[in-house]
Amino acid sequence: MFSLWVARLGKLGDAGCGVLVVAVLSLPLVLVTLASLPAVAVLPLLRGDGSKARRIVEQLTSWTEVLVSRGR
Q: Into how many domains does the chain fold?
């Protein structure tokens, strides 16, 4: 079954590879984003922990940028 996917991917070329990368990596990115929402909402309210929330958002942003750049 895997060889069938590889054969189809070879026919699609770079565009197919980009679509496959985005399809595979989108679900984990969505799950991590949803899991971090409570932390991003609560950490700025605690004393001195706004920097942790900022780092979480920066990391999610960088992961999204990588995902978008690989999908092109």
A: 1
Token pair of 32 as six digits: 């991590």
- From 49, 27, 26, select the one nearest 39 (Cα to Cα): 49
pTM score, two decimals? 0.55
Output the CA–CA distances (angstroms, integers) from residue 61 to 29, 46, 64, in the order listed.
10, 22, 5
Contact 31, 69 (CB under 8 A): no
Reduced DSSP (H G I as helix, E B as strand, rest coil) percent helix, strand, coil of the chain, to 5: 90, 0, 10
Domain holding 58, by residue range, is 2-71
pLDDT tens digits along 17-70: 677 777 777 888 888 888 888 888 887 777 776 788 888 889 888 888 887 776
